[in-house]
C-alpha cells in the first residue's frame, strides 16, 4: 500500500522566475525507506519541505501530494499543523538551528509533546526518559535542562531521534541528518536510524548527498540533478548497474579516497 | 619550521557569576617541517580547531609557545603573509559586499604591489584554482560551495605563505567536490611547496593528503603516526577511528 504519493510536483520560485523542481513523481510504500540523493542545489530539500508544506510562500508548487488518501494541498494550515510531527516527522540537518536557542531542550520537547498528545509534564518526562535511554543518552534529567548550544551536534541529533520515537510518526523525513557530524557520531546516528525503522516500522524518506551513506538503509533510491529525477531503482541494482553517467560519477566520487585508504590498511596484513 | 611547544589552553565557562574553566588543550607539542602535510584528526569538540586558531595567532595560548622559524606567532609581523587559513564555513568566510576580485585583492594590498601586478596575480590565482576570469566580478552568494571554497583557497595562497591551516576545509562540500578540492590542494602544494596543517575528522581524506597524522582526543595528542604505517596504530582510540572509517 502506498502511504505517500507525489504526482507531477513542480516548484517554481516567483522571485527569480525559475523552476526549482521539475515534474517529480514518486511513491512510498508502507514501511519502506526511500533515499533521495543529489548534490546541493538539486532540489531535494525543497521537495521534502513541500511534503511538510514548510516552503516559503515565494515558492509556488503544483501537482498533488497524497498522504494516506488525502491531498495535502487541500488542507488548511491548522489541519496541516496537527499532522506535522505527529504523522509526518522530520529530522533536520543541523541540530543547533532545529531547537529553539532561547530555551532549554526540555521546554521544546514538552511543548511539542503537549501539543500533540496533551500529556502532563510528568508523563512527558517519563516517556522522554525511556526514549532518551534507548538512543544511548544517559542522564536525561540533566539534558532536559541544557540549552542547545551546550550540547554537541551528535547529541542534539539523538535527542531529535528520541523525540521522534515518542511521536511515532507514519512517515519520517530525514534531511541530511549525518552531514554535520563527525565520523564516529555519523556511524552511531545511522545505527539509531536503522533501529528506529525496526522498532516503529515507519516509512522513511532519507535525503543525502553521499550515495555511500544511504546504502545500508535505503530500499529504493532516487537520484536528483537540477530539479529532475534522473535515475531511480532498487538500492542494490543501482549500486551494481547504474544507468546514468552522473550516477556513476556519484558512486565513484570517494573511490580514490577509499581505495587509497584500503591499500594503506592492507599493507600491514599483506 | 613550525614548532608547537607544550601548549595549554582553557576557556571560561559557566555564565556571568560562576567561575569555571574548561581545559581545551593539554600539553600539546609537535613540529611541522617545511613543506610537510600534517593531519590533525579528531572528533568534534576535541580541541582541534582551537589548536588551529592558536597556530594562526588569532588566539593566544595560556602556556607554552608556538614558534615560526624560531619566532613567536603572537607577533603579527612574524606571521603576516606567511601563515594563512581556509575554514569550513565558506559562506561566512568571504565578505558579502566584496566581489571575488576584491576578496583576493585584500591580502595583496598588504604586500605593497602595484595595482597592475595585483591584477596580474589575481588572474594567475583564479587560473590556478580552476575558475575562469568571469568570476572576478561575482559576489559570494552567486557562487556554489565548491567555487566559494576555491576563492578562499586562492585568497589564502595569494601571498605565497609557508604554511596553510585547513580547518575542515572540505567537510561541508559535496562528496564529488571534496575530491576535486583535494586534488587542487595537492597541485598547489607542488607549485608553492608550502606546508599544510590539515585539520579534519575525515581520516580517509587525511590519509589521502598527509604524510603524517596526529590523532587528537580531548585536547591531547593520543598518537602521532606516519600515514604509510597507518595500519600499525597502537592506541585504542586510533583503532576505533580506523574501524569506523573502514566500515563506511
> Which whole number gives the mean pLDDT of chain B?
90
The side-by-side strand order for the widest beta sheet of chain B comes to 6-7-8-3-9-10
Number of domains of chain A: 1
CATH architecture of chain A: 3-Layer(aba) Sandwich
DSSP summary: helix tally of chain A: 12
**Main β-sheet of chain B, in a few words?**
6 strands, mixed
Low-confidence parts of chain A: none
Order of helices and strands of chain A: EEEHEEHEHHHHHEHEHEEHHH
Count of DSSP helices of chain B? Answer: 8
Q: Biggest sheet of chain A, in brief?
A: 6 strands, mixed
Quickly give the structural class of chain A.
alpha/beta
CATH C-level class of chain B is: Alpha Beta
Biggest interface between chains: A-B, 32 and 33 residues
Report the CATH architecture of chain B.
3-Layer(aba) Sandwich
**Superfamily at the CATH H level of chain A?**
P-loop containing nucleotide triphosphate hydrolases
Q: What do these coordinates show?
A:
- Chain A is of the alpha/beta class and about 270 residues long.
- Chain A has a single domain, classed as 3-Layer(aba) Sandwich (Rossmann fold), CATH 3.40.50.300.
- A six-stranded mixed β-sheet of chain A has the order 6-7-8-3-9-10, sandwiched between helices. In chain A, strands 2-1-4-5 form a four-stranded antiparallel β-sheet, covered by helices on one side.
- In chain A, a hairpin with a 4-residue loop joins strand 1 and strand 2.
- Chain A is globular.
- With about 250 residues, chain B is of the alpha/beta class.
- Chain B has one domain: 3-Layer(aba) Sandwich (Rossmann fold).
- Chain B has eight helices and ten strands.
- In chain B, the strands form two sheets. Chain B has a six-stranded mixed β-sheet, with helices on both faces. In chain B, strands 2-1-4-5 form a four-stranded antiparallel β-sheet, covered by helices on one side.
- Chain B starts with a strand and ends with a helix.
- The chains are: A alpha/beta (about 270), B alpha/beta (about 250).
- Chains A and B meet through helix 8 and helix 12 of A and helix 6, helix 7 and helix 8 of B.
Amino acid at each position: 500500500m502506498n502511504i505517500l504519493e507525489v504526482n507531477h510536483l513542480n516548484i517554481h520560485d516567483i522571485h527569480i522566475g525559475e523552476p526549482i523542481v521539475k515534474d517529480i513523481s514518486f511513491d512510498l510504500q508502507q514501511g519502506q525507506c526511500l533515499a533521495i540523493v543529489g548534490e546541493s542545489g538539486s532540489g531535494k530539500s525543497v521537495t521534502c519541505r513541500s511534503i511538510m508544506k514548510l516552503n516559503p510562500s515565494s515558492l509556488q508548487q503544483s501537482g498533488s501530494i497524497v498522504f494516506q488518501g488525502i491531498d495535502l494541498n487541500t488542507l488548511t494550515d491548522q489541519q496541516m499543523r496537527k499532522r506535522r510531527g505527529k504523522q509526518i516527522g522530520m529530522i533536520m540537518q543541523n541540530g543547533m538551528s532545529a531547537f529553539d536557542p532561547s530555551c532549554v531542550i526540555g521546554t521544546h520537547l514538552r511543548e511539542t509533546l503537549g501539543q500533540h498528545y496533551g500529556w502532563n509534564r510528568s508523563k512527558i518526562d517519563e516517556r522522554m526518559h525511556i526514549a532518551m535511554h534507548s538512543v544511548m543518552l544517559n542522564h536525561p534529567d540533566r539534558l532536559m535542562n541544557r540549552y542547545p548550544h551546550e550540547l554537541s551536534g551528535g547529541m542534539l541529533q539523538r535527542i531529535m531521534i528520541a523525540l521522534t520515537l515518542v511521536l511515532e510518526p507514519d512517515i519520517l523525513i530525514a534531511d541530511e541528518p549525518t552531514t554535520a557530524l563527525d565520523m564516529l557520531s555519523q556511524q552511531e546516528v545511522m545505527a539509531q536510524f536503522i533501529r528506529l525503522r525496526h522498532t516503529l516500522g515507519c516509512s522513511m524518506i532519507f535525503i543525502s548527498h553521499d550515495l555511500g551513506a544511504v546504502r545500508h538503509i535505503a530500499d529504493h533510491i532516487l537520484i536528483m540533478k537540477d530539479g529532475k529525477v534522473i535515475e531511480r531503482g532498487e538500492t542494490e541494482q543501482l549500486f551494481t548497474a547504474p544507468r546514468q553517467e552522473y550516477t556513476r560519477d556519484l558512486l565513484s566520487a570517494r573511490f580514490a579516497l577509499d581505495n587509497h585508504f584500503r591499500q594503506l590498511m592492507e599493507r600491514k596484513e599483506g | 619550521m613550525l614548532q608547537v611547544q607544550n601548549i595549554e589552553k582553557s576557556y571560561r565557562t559557566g555564565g556571568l557569576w560562576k567561575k569555571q574553566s574548561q581545559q581545551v588543550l593539554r600539553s600539546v607539542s609537535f613540529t611541522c617541517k617545511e613543506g610537510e602535510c600534517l593531519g590533525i584528526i579528531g572528533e568534534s569538540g576535541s580541541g582541534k580547531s582551537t589548536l588551529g586558531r592558536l597556530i594562526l595567532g588569532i588566539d593566544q595560548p595560556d602556556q607554552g609557545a608556538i614558534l615560526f622559524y624560531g619566532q613567536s606567532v603572537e607577533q603579527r609581523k612574524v606571521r603576516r603573509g606567511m601563515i594563512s587559513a581556509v575554514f569550513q564555513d565558506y559562506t561566512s568566510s568571504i565578505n558579502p559586499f566584496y566581489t571575488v576580485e576584491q576578496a583576493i585583492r585584500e591580502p595583496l594590498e598588504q604586500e605593497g604591489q602595484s595595482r597592475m601586478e595585483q591584477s596580474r596575480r589575481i588572474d594567475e590565482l583564479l587560473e590556478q584554482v580552476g575558475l575562469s576570469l568571469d568570476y572576478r566580478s561575482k559576489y559570494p552568494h552567486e557562487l556554489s560551495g565548491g567555487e566559494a571554497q576555491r576563492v578562499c583557497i586562492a585568497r589564502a595562497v595569494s601571498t605565497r605563505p609557508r604554511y596553510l591551516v585547513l580547518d575542515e576545509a572540505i567537510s561541508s562540500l559535496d562528496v564529488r567536490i571534496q575530491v576535486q578540492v583535494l586534488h587542487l590542494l595537492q597541485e598547489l602544494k607542488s607549485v608553492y611547496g608550502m606546508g599544510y596543517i590539515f585539520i579534519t575528522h575525515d581520516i580517509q581524506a587525511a590519509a589521502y593528503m598527509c604524510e603524517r597524522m596526529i590523532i587528537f582526543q580531548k585536547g591531547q595528542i593520543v598518537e602521532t603516526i606516519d600515514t604509510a604505517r597507518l595500519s600499525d596504530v597502537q592506541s585504542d582510540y586510533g583503532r576505533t577511528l580506523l574501524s569506523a572509517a573502514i566500515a563506511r
